[in-house]
Amino acid sequence: MSGGHSTYTPTTGIGRWIDARMPLPRLMHDSFISYPTPRNLNYAYTFGGILSIMLVVQILTGVVLAMHYTASTLLAFDSVEKIMRDVNSGWLLRYLHSNGASMFFFAVFIHIFRGLYYGSYKAPRELLWILGCIILLLMMAAGFMGYVLPWGQMSFWGATVITGFFTAIPLAGEWVQQLLLGGFAVDNPTLNRFFSLHYLIPFMIAGVVVLHIWALHVTGQTNPTGIEVKSKTDTIPFTPYATVKDALGMVVFFLLFAYFVFYLPNFLGHPDNYIVANPLKTPAHIVPEWYFLPFYAILRAITFNIGPIDSKLGGVLAMFGAIAVLFFVPWLDTSKVRSAVYRPWYKLFFWLFVVDSILLGWLGSRPAEPPYVVMAQLATLYYFGFFLVIMPVLGLIETPRRLPNSITEAVLAKNHGSAAAHPAGAAAAPETKA
Amino acid sequence: MKKILSGLAALCLGATMATAALAQEEAHNEANPTHFPIHRPAELDWSFAGPLGRYDKGQLQRGLKVYKEVCSACHSLRLVSFRNLEDLGYSAEQVRALAAEYEVTDGPNADGEMFTRAALPSDHFPSPYPNDEAASAANNGAAPPDLSLMAKARTVERGFPRFVFDVFTQYAEGGPDYIHALLTGYEETPPEGMEVAEGTHYNPYFIAGKSLAMPQPISADQVTYEDGSPQTIDQYSRDVSAFLMWAAEPHLDERKMIGFRVIIFLMLFIGLLWMTKRKVWAGVAH
Ligand code: HEM
């Protein structure tokens, strides 16, 4: 990670002693202080930092919740209510954790859309992108299992429906489902293994995040122009520039987070989860958490058999395919130009894709009846069409706009060359008043 | 080019939203409705709504009285303990006296026998029935649900685009609005041709069907109010709904108070960071 740009010089005796033995301070300095970042990053680039802090929030609140939570079908619901009523600030912890999960997913979706817009997945950042997709998968597992823990009606029935998908897998299906459940139906063994895994997975995520950031620091960040860093004037040091910008992004994000925690803490949840799980009473509509809804819509859009594949297996394949396809994006996009800024047609199809994803999310919350089914089928068609047809074909036929020669040129053109080309003067400008 | 593109995108978006909003308006069959509730609950003014909302203690005390004298005959409130009632403005003495009106089973004693005793502030509201089976048997097969979380466990779906506006208007009172609508919704007679199952009562506000096993539980002047509030079904329903909201979310006042401070703090912090950011970046073209 320290690469060729290490400018760290320990000033104290202790500093030099540590640096000669285990240069952790050097690593930190090179990663978060002197690390060169493109000078033209916008706020879409602050979501990586936001995601890191949200992972920390989830782990901290989760560890304390786990001190009061009881993973037993007889006690789980009441133990969560005890947290809500009797544990000091327990209501705050739990609302932070449950809304934190939503915020975490909200941020990761924006982070992924950012990547799709600016072509962040293109060479040499394929592994970086794939590590991100793995984090998304792990987050989904963590979110799903976490939602089962309070043992409400949606916890139970969501778990029943989702583990039921696995029976669609030919031959091994039943066996996989029973392994997940620890039995033949969602019950105490299921709750216990989900709690154990729910505790484990966030730490696995933390591990993959380290790899993700390592890969990032090898290739460097992309930027809105999509042009690689070429000279020193293209970059500025991480601190203070990126630090203060990321901090601002984070605090604005916290404002949104706080708004939900304090004023709409149950808006993103389902009222049925305040009813104790009852295996004998199926809710009228079983819906997963909002962040799974687009995938749920895709699952239910496949209402027809395709050759030997029946609609159930087809739905499951489509759902997993919707995530699997992300892994192949670096090779599906054939364009030589990285950023959508210079690709007018891709830009249009990208925004349609964003709208399509939101539409799928809404359709996932609707019952499976007309006209929603047909709408979901069309939206699913566009979802896959975007990746499998538009991305490869558009790259070959689209005429991109003229690219600037460098980041510096793009920035100066935008600012009409009025501002200083190099930041050194700015950092040392004491006369500017705030 | 850019204009055409954004025009196209806007068109697609508009068409989708219109379809989405229209798709929710299903055909309606008076005698044979398929979507419930038949009527949407009215949105009332609650003292605890909005960023500065607080429970009205007088109202909660009246609501408790309605629960005690009417609902508790059938419904339990198992997550609420008597000591929690101090939140409603009662003293420790009053709570002890209130708890002592109830009997709870305790034991076993040294002889291995279960015994009953007067409830203590640390006890929870006892259930009116010994078990769920007894509860269903006494109520035509439908056990009256526990009310502790009722105000958070029911919300009539808001639908698109209402749920988007709710984020900005901070609408979070779907639960009490529903309970109030249900309790005041027995007046109407079923439309011509509708069949109402035996032992159930027509209520167009019920979330899960056209009728439910609970009969109209309360009538005017049934509960005596000492503070001069009107003794009407509407007022009783408002008060007991507010009380049930408190039972489901006892820390709401604290949450909104802390929330207000947190949000002010964050806004000031954002202001300072924004100025710092501008100063740091001043003169750096980006
Ligand atoms: C990737 C990070 C995490 C995500 C996305 C996540 C997500 C969730 C979700 C969605 C719930 C259900 C919330 C509710 O409706 O009440 C939940 C509950 C819970 N989580 Fe997590 N969690 C994460 C990390 C952790 C960690 C690290 C721990 C423990 C060390 C933990 C412990 C718990 C406990 C005890 C509950 C049950 C209590 C409750 O329902 O509030 N979580 N989690």
UniProtKB/TrEMBL annotation, chain A:
**Residue positions binding a ubiquinone:** 217
Please list the GO biological process terms of this entry. respiratory electron transport chain
Q: Which GO terms describe its cellular component?
A: respiratory chain complex III
Per the record, the major location class is membrane
Q: Where is the Cytochrome b/b6 N-terminal region profile domain?
A: 14-225
What the record notes about the co-factor is: Binds 2 heme groups non-covalently.
What is the role of the protein in this entry?
Component of the ubiquinol-cytochrome c reductase complex (complex III or cytochrome b-c1 complex), which is a respiratory chain that generates an electrochemical potential coupled to ATP synthesis.
Q: Which family does it belong to?
A: Belongs to the cytochrome b family.
Tell me what this protein is called. Answer: Cytochrome b
UniProtKB/TrEMBL annotation, chain B:
Matching entries from Gene3D superfamilies are given as: Cytochrome c-like domain (1.10.760.10), Cytochrome c1, transmembrane anchor, C-terminal (1.20.5.100)
Question: Which SUPFAM superfamilies does its entry note?
Answer: Cytochrome c, Cytochrome c1 subunit of cytochrome bc1 complex (Ubiquinol-cytochrome c reductase), transmembrane anchor
Q: How is the cofactor bound?
A: Binds 1 heme c group covalently per subunit.
Q: Where are the transmembrane segments?
A: 258-276
Read off the PROSITE patterns from this record: CYTC
Record PANTHER family: CYTOCHROME C1, CYTOCHROME C1, HEME PROTEIN, MITOCHONDRIAL
Its protein name is Cytochrome c1
Any idea which positions bind heme c?
71, 74-75, 214
